[in-house]
Amino acid sequence: MSTSILVPHDGSSHAQAALEYALETFPNARIVLFHAIDPFETTSGADQLPSLTEEWLDSQRSEANALFERARDGIDDRGATFETETDVGTPAQTIVAAVEQTKTDQIVLGSHGRGGATDSRMGTTAEIVVKRASVPVTVVR
C-alpha cells in the first residue's frame, strides 16, 4: 500500500522541517505539498485586507508556486512523488478539508507557522488540525 502525505507549507522553518521529516520517514511516498491561501491575512504595512479579485488569486498562486520551488530546492526527495495544491481559506480549515480533496493518508505539519509565537508547544493552526483531522497528524518542531 502506498502512503500519501499532506505537508502544509507556509514558507516557515517549521514547515520546511516537516517536509524534510516526511521525506525521511516516508521514503517513496506520494507527497502533496499544500499551501492555504488565506484571504484574511494582511501583509506587513497594509491597513486593510486585499481585494479578492482574480488578479489577487493569480498572484497568490504564483507566490505559492515560488514557495513550493524554494521548499524543494536542495532537498533529497528520496524517490518521493511530489504534487502541489493550493486552496483558499483559513489555514486550519483548509488543511483539514484538503485531506479528502487530495486523498491523503496522513498530515505532517510544522508546529508553528510564519506568524506564530514559538513559546507554546503548538501554534493555533497545528492545534486545530490535530483536533479536527480525520487522518493521523504528525507535528514536527
Automatic annotation (TrEMBL):
Domain (UspA) ranges: 1-141
Domain of life from the UniProt record: Archaea
A Pfam match: Usp
Coiled coil regions, renumbered to chain: none
Protein name: Universal stress protein
Organism of this sequence: Natrarchaeobius halalkaliphilus
